[in-house]
Design brief:
The protein folds into two domains: about 1-100 and about 195-220; about 100-195, no CATH class. It has six helices and eight strands. The chain has helices at about 1-10, 10-30, 35-40, 40-65, 75-95, 195-220; strands at about 100-105, 110, 120-130, 135-145, 150-155, 160-165, 165-180, 180-195. With about 220 residues, the chain is an alpha+beta fold.
Length: about 220
């Protein structure tokens, strides 16, 4: 049992797993054909679980050792480890619950949303710089549910999505389209559901706090 605990909490195991997961993720990203297959396979799930177990065991071990000491306790690494644990949970939650879809709309078109409400494209603007280069494209939308307006005149920009009902609606693209009034533009809107996103943000905050606290303590101690 002691050998197993020593192995599961070893730094070598943690470094090896981090290196493996980093390289595997890069390769999976470079080969989109195998991306989803890899993240749903045992080649990702087992190492990720083992990494989580390593972090958990290290954190618990540090806490138990800390309880036996008086004073001089360094909390930075504990917060850092906790943040990494939360990051693993949030990432797996995001992957397992990730959903997305896309739609192309022209002004006055509408589309039903997952919660039963309806999104209307009220207007679409394609803005250019004076020299003709594309500057921005903006979808002006409204949301109606059960005949009652929920949102009105909301602008969706390239880097400013609409977050509503647990989904994020992004301005993804545009294309020329023929309408009854002539040639205009159709707006490409992408909807993404990422349930683990808030947890990932919390994890990143914990990692930042833990890292900063650790360095601050080392600087204070003159290490």
């Amino acid at each position: 049992m002691k050998r197993f605990i020593a192995w599961i909490t070893s730094m070598r195991l943690a470094i090896g797993l981090i290196a493996y997961l980093a390289i595997a993720c890069v390769l999976a990203t470079l080969m989109p054909r195998y991306f989803e297959r890899f993240f749903g396979s045992v080649w990702f799930v087992f190492p990720a679980f083992l990494f989580f177990a390593n972090l958990s065991a290290c954190t618990v071990t540090r806490l138990l050792r800390g309880l036996q000491k008086r004073g001089g306790r360094r909390h930075g690494p504990d917060i850092l480890h906790l943040g990494l644990m939360v990051l693993v949970i949030g990432s797996l939650w995001s992957f397992s619950g990730h959903r997305q879809g896309a739609v192309s709309l022209v002004p006055v078109d509408s589309v039903s949303l997952p919660d039963g409400s309806v999104l209307f494209l009220d207007d679409f603007r394609f803005e250019r710089y004076p020299d003709g280069r594309p500057r921005d494209w903006v979808s002006v939308v409204s949301v109606v549910k059960d005949g009652e307006p929920i949102l009105d005149g909301i602008e969706i920009r390239v880097n400013d999505p609409l977050r509503y009902g647990g989904w994020s609606y992004y301005q993804a693209s545009f294309e020329e389209s023929s309408t009854a009034s002539g040639t205009g533009y159709a707006s490409g809107i992408e909807a993404v559901s990422d349930p683990g996103y808030p947890l990932v943000l919390v994890a990143l905050a914990l990692v930042a706090i833990g890292t900063t606290w650790t360095f601050a303590q080392k600087l204070k101690e003159g290490v």
